Protein backbone atom coordinates (compact mmCIF):
# COMPACT_ATOMS: atom_id res chain seq x y z
CA UNK A 1 0.00 0.00 0.00
CA UNK A 2 2.84 2.42 0.76
CA UNK A 3 4.33 1.78 -2.63
CA UNK A 4 1.01 2.47 -4.36
CA UNK A 5 0.49 5.62 -2.34
CA UNK A 6 3.95 6.85 -3.26
CA UNK A 7 3.33 6.14 -6.94
CA UNK A 8 -0.01 7.93 -6.84
CA UNK A 9 1.49 10.98 -5.13
CA UNK A 10 4.30 11.11 -7.66
CA UNK A 11 1.87 10.91 -10.57
CA UNK A 12 -0.28 13.68 -9.08
CA UNK A 13 2.82 15.81 -8.49
CA UNK A 14 3.99 15.38 -12.09
CA UNK A 15 0.49 16.21 -13.33
CA UNK A 16 0.29 19.38 -11.22
CA UNK A 17 3.78 20.46 -12.29
CA UNK A 18 2.85 19.92 -15.93
CA UNK A 19 -0.25 22.07 -15.55
CA UNK A 20 1.72 24.85 -13.88
CA UNK A 21 4.28 24.82 -16.69
CA UNK A 22 1.47 24.81 -19.26
CA UNK A 23 -0.15 27.87 -17.74
CA UNK A 24 3.10 29.81 -18.01
CA UNK A 25 4.27 28.73 -21.43
CA UNK A 26 3.27 32.00 -23.11
CA UNK A 27 4.36 34.46 -20.43
CA UNK A 28 7.79 35.02 -22.02
CA UNK A 29 8.31 35.77 -25.69
CA UNK A 30 11.07 33.54 -26.95
CA UNK A 31 12.08 31.80 -30.11
CA UNK A 32 14.77 29.43 -31.34
CA UNK A 33 15.60 28.87 -34.97
CA UNK A 34 18.22 27.06 -37.00
CA UNK A 35 18.47 28.15 -40.62
CA UNK A 36 20.79 27.96 -43.62
CA UNK A 37 22.49 31.16 -44.73
CA UNK A 38 23.75 30.91 -48.35
CA UNK A 39 26.89 32.63 -49.54
CA UNK A 40 26.58 36.30 -50.52
CA UNK A 41 23.26 36.45 -48.68
CA UNK A 42 21.82 38.46 -45.79
CA UNK A 43 18.83 37.40 -43.68
CA UNK A 44 16.92 39.64 -41.26
CA UNK A 45 14.42 38.86 -38.51
CA UNK A 46 12.02 41.19 -36.72
CA UNK A 47 10.58 41.22 -33.20
CA UNK A 48 8.16 43.67 -31.57
CA UNK A 49 9.38 44.64 -28.08
CA UNK A 50 7.81 46.94 -25.52
CA UNK A 51 9.79 49.63 -23.74
CA UNK A 52 11.53 48.52 -20.55
CA UNK A 53 11.67 44.82 -21.40
CA UNK A 54 15.00 43.04 -21.08
CA UNK A 55 15.95 40.97 -24.12
CA UNK A 56 18.70 38.48 -24.88
CA UNK A 57 19.93 37.34 -28.29
CA UNK A 58 22.29 34.40 -28.53
CA UNK A 59 23.63 32.99 -31.80
CA UNK A 60 26.14 30.42 -32.99
CA UNK A 61 27.36 29.22 -36.37
CA UNK A 62 27.01 25.44 -36.49
CA UNK A 63 28.52 24.54 -39.86
CA UNK A 64 30.09 26.14 -42.89
CA UNK A 65 33.37 27.77 -43.83
CA UNK A 66 35.27 29.13 -40.84
CA UNK A 67 32.13 29.01 -38.67
CA UNK A 68 31.74 32.80 -38.72
CA UNK A 69 29.03 35.28 -39.64
CA UNK A 70 28.33 39.02 -39.49
CA UNK A 71 25.56 40.10 -37.13
CA UNK A 72 23.78 43.43 -36.64
CA UNK A 73 20.99 44.46 -34.27
CA UNK A 74 19.13 47.75 -34.69
CA UNK A 75 16.40 49.60 -32.78
CA UNK A 76 13.15 50.90 -34.33
CA UNK A 77 14.78 54.33 -34.65
CA UNK A 78 17.59 52.84 -36.73
CA UNK A 79 20.18 53.04 -33.95
CA UNK A 80 22.71 50.21 -34.10
CA UNK A 81 22.65 48.38 -30.77
CA UNK A 82 25.08 45.62 -31.70
CA UNK A 83 27.33 45.03 -34.69
CA UNK A 84 30.22 42.63 -35.17
CA UNK A 85 31.88 40.82 -38.04
CA UNK A 86 32.98 37.23 -38.50
CA UNK A 87 31.76 36.00 -35.13
CA UNK A 88 31.43 32.30 -34.39
CA UNK A 89 29.09 32.82 -31.45
CA UNK A 90 28.03 35.57 -29.08
CA UNK A 91 25.35 36.67 -26.60
CA UNK A 92 23.95 40.18 -26.32
CA UNK A 93 21.55 41.46 -23.64
CA UNK A 94 19.88 44.86 -23.61
CA UNK A 95 16.86 46.71 -22.23
CA UNK A 96 14.54 48.28 -24.79
CA UNK A 97 14.36 52.07 -24.41
CA UNK A 98 11.50 52.39 -26.90
CA UNK A 99 8.54 50.36 -28.09
CA UNK A 100 8.68 49.10 -31.64
CA UNK A 101 10.02 46.50 -34.04
CA UNK A 102 13.65 45.54 -33.52
CA UNK A 103 15.61 44.05 -36.41
CA UNK A 104 18.56 41.68 -36.27
CA UNK A 105 20.36 40.50 -39.40
CA UNK A 106 22.88 37.78 -40.17
CA UNK A 107 25.14 38.32 -43.15
CA UNK A 108 27.29 35.91 -45.13
CA UNK A 109 28.07 38.41 -47.87
CA UNK A 110 31.82 38.14 -47.30
CA UNK A 111 31.77 34.46 -48.30
CA UNK A 112 31.85 33.53 -51.98
CA UNK A 113 31.09 29.81 -51.89
CA UNK A 114 30.49 28.43 -48.37
CA UNK A 115 26.99 28.18 -46.92
CA UNK A 116 26.47 28.56 -43.17
CA UNK A 117 24.01 26.97 -40.77
CA UNK A 118 23.18 29.44 -37.99
CA UNK A 119 21.30 28.92 -34.72
CA UNK A 120 19.87 31.74 -32.63
CA UNK A 121 17.83 31.98 -29.43
CA UNK A 122 15.85 35.18 -28.86
CA UNK A 123 14.18 35.85 -25.49
CA UNK A 124 12.15 38.90 -24.50
CA UNK A 125 11.39 39.63 -20.86
CA UNK A 126 12.36 37.95 -17.63
CA UNK A 127 10.92 34.60 -16.78
CA UNK A 128 8.02 35.07 -14.33
CA UNK A 129 7.46 32.88 -11.26
CA UNK A 130 5.91 29.48 -11.77
CA UNK A 131 2.45 30.74 -10.75
CA UNK A 132 1.11 34.23 -10.34
CA UNK A 133 -0.16 33.36 -6.87
CA UNK A 134 3.20 32.31 -5.43
CA UNK A 135 4.49 35.86 -4.95
CA UNK A 136 1.22 36.93 -3.32
CA UNK A 137 1.39 34.23 -0.65
CA UNK A 138 1.14 35.68 2.83
CA UNK A 139 2.56 32.47 4.25
CA UNK A 140 5.44 30.23 3.31
CA UNK A 141 5.14 27.97 0.30
CA UNK A 142 3.84 24.48 0.82
CA UNK A 143 6.12 21.52 0.23
CA UNK A 144 4.47 20.73 -3.11
CA UNK A 145 4.75 24.35 -4.29
CA UNK A 146 8.41 24.53 -3.31
CA UNK A 147 9.12 21.24 -5.07
CA UNK A 148 7.25 22.42 -8.18
CA UNK A 149 9.31 25.63 -8.31
CA UNK A 150 12.59 23.73 -7.90
CA UNK A 151 11.62 21.19 -10.56
CA UNK A 152 10.55 23.97 -12.92
CA UNK A 153 13.91 25.74 -12.59
CA UNK A 154 15.84 22.48 -12.95
CA UNK A 155 13.92 21.58 -16.10
CA UNK A 156 14.72 24.99 -17.60
CA UNK A 157 18.42 24.44 -16.87
CA UNK A 158 18.25 20.96 -18.39
CA UNK A 159 16.67 22.33 -21.58
CA UNK A 160 19.39 24.99 -21.86
CA UNK A 161 22.18 22.45 -21.31
CA UNK A 162 20.68 20.03 -23.83
CA UNK A 163 20.43 22.79 -26.44
CA UNK A 164 24.06 23.80 -26.00
CA UNK A 165 25.27 20.20 -26.03
CA UNK A 166 23.32 19.51 -29.23
CA UNK A 167 24.90 22.55 -30.85
CA UNK A 168 28.38 21.50 -29.78
CA UNK A 169 27.75 17.94 -30.97
CA UNK A 170 26.49 19.17 -34.34
CA UNK A 171 29.44 21.52 -34.76
CA UNK A 172 31.94 18.83 -33.76
CA UNK A 173 30.33 16.32 -36.13
CA UNK A 174 30.48 18.79 -39.01
CA UNK A 175 34.14 19.53 -38.26
CA UNK A 176 34.95 15.80 -38.06
CA UNK A 177 33.21 15.07 -41.37
CA UNK A 178 35.00 17.98 -43.04
CA UNK A 179 38.34 16.82 -41.64
CA UNK A 180 37.65 13.26 -42.79
CA UNK A 181 36.89 14.51 -46.31
CA UNK A 182 40.11 16.52 -46.43
CA UNK A 183 42.17 13.57 -45.16
CA UNK A 184 40.57 11.38 -47.84
CA UNK A 185 41.46 13.82 -50.62
CA UNK A 186 44.98 14.20 -49.23
CA UNK A 187 45.42 10.42 -49.10
CA UNK A 188 44.21 10.01 -52.68
CA UNK A 189 46.59 12.75 -53.80
CA UNK A 190 49.51 11.15 -51.97
CA UNK A 191 48.68 7.77 -53.51
CA UNK A 192 48.68 9.28 -57.00
CA UNK A 193 52.01 11.00 -56.37
CA UNK A 194 53.55 7.74 -55.12
CA UNK A 195 52.19 5.88 -58.16
CA UNK A 196 53.60 8.48 -60.57
CA UNK A 197 56.99 8.43 -58.84
CA UNK A 198 57.06 4.62 -58.92
CA UNK A 199 56.29 4.48 -62.64
CA UNK A 200 58.88 7.18 -63.30
CA UNK A 201 61.55 5.29 -61.36
CA UNK A 202 60.80 2.12 -63.33
CA UNK A 203 61.33 3.91 -66.65
CA UNK A 204 64.48 5.63 -65.39
CA UNK A 205 65.98 2.36 -64.12
CA UNK A 206 65.02 0.65 -67.38
CA UNK A 207 66.83 3.32 -69.37
CA UNK A 208 70.05 2.59 -67.46
CA UNK A 209 70.13 -1.00 -68.72
CA UNK A 210 69.13 -0.29 -72.30
CA UNK A 211 72.03 -0.51 -74.80
CA UNK A 212 71.70 2.40 -77.18
CA UNK A 213 75.01 1.86 -79.07
CA UNK A 214 74.73 1.52 -82.84
CA UNK A 215 76.12 -1.68 -84.41
CA UNK A 216 78.12 -1.06 -87.63
CA UNK A 217 78.20 -3.75 -90.31
Molecular structure report:
The protein is of the alpha+beta class. It folds into two domains: 30-126, Sandwich (Jelly Rolls); 138-211. It has helices at 2-23, 143-208, and strands at residues 29-37, 42-49, 54-63, 69-74, 80-87, 89-95, 100-107, 116-124. The strands form two sheets. A four-stranded antiparallel sheet has the order 1-8-3-6. A four-stranded antiparallel sheet has the order 2-7-4-5, with no helix packed on it. α1 crosses α2 (143-208). Residues 1-28 have low confidence and may be disordered. It is found in: Endomembrane system; Membrane. Residues 42-124 form the GOLD domain. Belongs to the EMP24/GP25L family. It is a single-pass membrane protein; Single-pass type I membrane protein.
List strands and helices in order, with pairings.
Blueprint: H1 2-23, E1 29-37, E2 42-49, E3 54-63, E4 69-74, E5 80-87, E6 89-95, E7 100-107, E8 116-124, H2 143-208
Helix pairs in contact: 1-2
Brief summary:
This protein is α+β, with helices and mostly antiparallel strands and 217 residues long. It contains two helices and eight strands.
Helix coverage percent: 40-55%
Shape: elongated
Q: What radius of gyration results from the CA coordinates?
A: 31 Å
Second rung of CATH, namely the architecture of the largest domain: Sandwich
Order of neighbouring strands in the sheet with most strands: 1-8-3-6
Number of domains: 2
Family: Belongs to the EMP24/GP25L family.
Subcellular location: Endomembrane system; Membrane
Transmembrane segments: 183-204
Domain GOLD: 42-124
Features:
four-stranded antiparallel β-sheet; 217 residues; 8 strands; single chain; GOLD_dom; signal; Jelly Rolls; alpha+beta; elongated
Amino acid sequence: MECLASTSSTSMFVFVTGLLCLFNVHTVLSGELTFELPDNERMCFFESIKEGLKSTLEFQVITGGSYDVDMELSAPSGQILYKDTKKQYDTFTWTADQTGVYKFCFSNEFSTFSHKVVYFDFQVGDKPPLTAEIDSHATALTLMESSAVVNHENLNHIVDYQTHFRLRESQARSFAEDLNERVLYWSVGQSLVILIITVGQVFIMKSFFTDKREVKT
